[in-house]
Amino acid sequence: MSETPPSASPASELAQRVRRFVDEFILPAEPLLAAEDSAARALTRALSQQARDASVFGNFYPLRYGGRLASLTDYIEVAEQEGRSEYAPGILGADATLDAYMLERHAGPSIRARFFLPLVQGNAVSSYAMSEPDSIGSIPATMNCRAELGDGNWHIDGRKWFICRSQLADFATVVARTGEGPVAQALSMIVVPTGAPGFEVLRPLSLLGRWQGQAELAFKGVQVPYDHVLGQPGQGIALMQERLGLGRLLRSAHWLGQAQRCFELMCGRVHSPKGQLARLAGKQLVRARIYRVYRAIATARSLVLDAAHKFDTGIGNSIEVNLAKLAASDAVSEASDSAIQIMGAEGLSDWMPLAGIYRNARTTHILDGADDALISTIGRQLLDATTPDTAFDPRYPSRRLSRAAE
């Protein structure tokens, strides 16, 4: 007796619609989008409007501002489909999800009206300015960008670099030093319009020879009103931790989408006439690659969903988030490398997406937290959580960690 398949959930139905949109409209446009020129930007805007018309834009924005899913756990399935193309998160508004989340939770009325509402309506581009050329990204105490309060305004001076979307952004959330003493009370997040006098894009910065919208910025006496601070002055570290946790999960889900696309391309080649001619399906090393890539994706997906569920339920998840980020990074790297190996020289060509995914995969081991730093942090956290006479539950490894330890 056959079983009736369960009906698709709202998240699954949305994921299917997103996949159809990405496959039908974005994947064929990738060669044009890769140009990063005025024509590519115009095409991005046109596709974004098309996505809004198709109701697949801003899928994890706050519900009352057009979002379609309330839980991160549900959104992960959709985010995977958004991640099938490296250009899709920008076109579908997913790149703005984290800024929308932070502004909704921590922005005052003037910031919400001037920046938040245009952002969720698809009429503004956001960026996040944290990394600096003369500081260590994983050590916030080394940041030098300063914001001094005077005459009711923040006066900002400093440099930032490797800032995503900064050349197109309408505003940037800037991490700046606003006080002395312990770093936990010395940093703040301040929203800065990119048209403010003293804001300057110094130069674009390529990643592995590709322009991906990152740049170095200078703030030379930039002034913004006091109420442009997120939360309260001195809350920068707490807001950075909040932002990192969600941001790493959103990125990880998108990387899973790229990894899954590589897996599909691998299997497609094995089953193709060329693959049959080469008898790829009968080669043990090919089978081993298929297995390893599938295992890497399945493992990373489970870790991402576990961390997302704990995010939704308010359970400490710092270890789980970092594990998920590392696993998703490994998955897309394993998948792109194996797909290129099976494709051969064709996989290295410009007419295949694998070369771009491969380069992007390497950057995932640095961006959003370098592997070595995250591995060291996880090791320290696990040792803190397993001290003698401590009841350690491996299902909830972050539960007993203090905020300072995280």
From TrEMBL:
Q: Which domain of life is it from?
A: Bacteria
Record key words, sorted: FAD, Flavoprotein, Oxidoreductase
> Which GO cellular component does the record give, naming just one?
cytoplasm
Cofactors named for this entry: FAD
What GO MF terms are annotated?
A: acyl-CoA dehydrogenase activity; flavin adenine dinucleotide binding
UniProt-listed InterPro entries: Acyl-CoA_dehydrogenase, Acyl-CoA_Oxase/DH_mid-dom, Acyl-CoA_Oxase/DH_mid-dom_sf, AcylCo_DH-like_C, AcylCo_DH/oxidase_C, AcylCoA_DH/ox_N, AcylCoA_DH/ox_N_sf, AcylCoA_DH/oxidase_NM_dom_sf
Cite the Acyl-CoA oxidase/dehydrogenase middle domain residue spans from the record. 128-221
Q: Which residues form the Acyl-CoA dehydrogenase/oxidase C-terminal domain?
A: 234-383
A Pfam family of this chain? Acyl-CoA_dh_1
Q: Domain Acyl-CoA dehydrogenase/oxidase N-terminal, which positions?
A: 13-122
Instruction: From the UniProt record, give one GO term of the biological process aspect.
Output: fatty acid beta-oxidation using acyl-CoA dehydrogenase
On subunit structure and binding partners, the annotation says:
Homodimer.
Homology family: Belongs to the acyl-CoA dehydrogenase family.
Report the PANTHER family cross-referenced here: ACYL-COA DEHYDROGENASE FAMILY MEMBER 11 (PTHR48083:SF13), MEDIUM-CHAIN SPECIFIC ACYL-COA DEHYDROGENASE, MITOCHONDRIAL-RELATED (PTHR48083)
Q: What is this protein called?
A: Acyl-CoA dehydrogenase
Q: Which organism is it from?
A: Thauera linaloolentis (strain DSM 12138 / JCM 21573 / CCUG 41526 / CIP 105981 / IAM 15112 / NBRC 102519 / 47Lol)
